[in-house]
């Protein structure tokens, strides 16, 4: 099949199929992805699950200190809070999906299943082309590429739900099953993925080139996306996220200011204190004293009320 059809289907899914509710579980789908040529990306983390399928190509998947060979037919799981990266000299043709369980809307059995997925050891599985998961994924993309409508939307939801359950079942087999061995996106979709990447990797340098490489776009393109979608520069956005995270940690934890500065990605306590005071007009220590016990957090910044 032409990869352009897959890309068309992916774009449709990212517009219409971002929330799934099935069998007592509710999932937020952060993104659906199709990447015809996936090369090296920097090491990073997610706060959610990502599952990828290799349509064609070879490479390596690295998680923490482990390395796994990727080949045509490999299905692999990126687990939350695990540092990982994908490497390939010739490029991998990948399908992928990023998702997380909405715990408040899901029954306890699903909490347990996702905990097992996060702890599973077999994170790379070899699939045959004629097996269920590749066929379901192809069917989903084909259906998504067609014109919409009420019935089409229902079919997409149900197909996507079946695919997601089948993906999870691959990595968390049920007790009665025999375990087996182990093109361009819209600016808003790229912006959403960039925000997730920044949020989940705040302690890293987060250079423009790193985030652009993760998204497989140029730094200039990423700068334009932030100007268009956020109304400011990439560096200003990252700095704002670091400071907002630091403010929330000051309010809700007893962590030392040095630890908070490191968690938010500041190179030194001195730099953090200067940047925090400039934005909030209050030093970090005084900020914690003023707002630690407040049920709501409102403070004056440049004549505008900001609320965390």
What name does the CATH topology of the largest domain carry?
A: Jelly Rolls
Number of helices: 11
Integer-rounded radius of gyration:
21 Å
The average pLDDT is 90
Named at the architecture level, the CATH assignment of the largest domain is Sandwich
Number of domains: 2
Which stretches are low in confidence, meaning pLDDT under 50 for 5 or more residues running?
176-183, 302-308
Strand order of the largest sheet: 1-2-8-3-6-9
**CATH top level assignment of the largest domain:** Mainly Beta
The share of residues in extended strands comes to 15-25%
**Which bin fits the share of residues in helices?**
40-55%
Protein name: AraC-like ligand binding domain/transcriptional regulator, AraC family
Domain HTH araC/xylS-type: 192-290
GO molecular function, one term: DNA-binding transcription factor activity
InterPro entries: AraC-bd, Homeodomain-like_sf, HTH-like, HTH_AraC, HTH_AraC-typ_CS, RmlC-like_jellyroll
